[in-house]
Write a structure and sequence with these properties.
The protein is α+β, with helices and mostly antiparallel strands. It has a 3-stranded antiparallel sheet, with helices on one face. Helices cover 28% and strands 16% of the residues. Strand 4 and strand 5 form a beta hairpin. It is built from 2 helices and 5 strands, in the order E-H-E-E-H-E-E. The longest helix has 16 residues.
């Protein structure tokens, strides 16, 4: 087994886990509840980790890399055609009038 991803943010770890599993790769989540031990052990040792079989490591790493590139290359904010409200690029639905982008 090889560690493919870790972060202090468990939301990001679970998101990465879902992305990898969507590709049919078995993922083991370690340290999911270890944050309660912080202070007794190093904070870095408490971060949740994703581990995959060595045979799947390259593909899983590619999934994580592509997800990171997609997150960093988001398009610009957009203006709703219905109400004229400015929305963040991450929104697919206008936060003001709930109309689709």
């Amino acid at each position: 087994m090889k560690k493919v991803y870790t972060s202090e943010n468990s939301f990001l770890v679970h998101n990465a886990k879902n992305l990898i599993e969507a590709q049919g790769i078995h993922v083991v989540l370690k340290n999911e509840f270890a944050q309660g031990a912080m202070g007794e052990i190093s904070p870095f040792d408490c971060w949740p980790e994703l581990w995959v079989n060595e045979a799947d490591f390259a593909e899983a790493e590619l999934v994580i890399t592509e997800a990171s590139l997609t997150a960093n290359s988001e398009e610009a904010d957009w203006v709703c055609a219905s109400c004229g409200e400015e929305n963040s690029a991450t929104f697919e639905i206008c936060w003001s009038c709930q109309k689709a982008r």
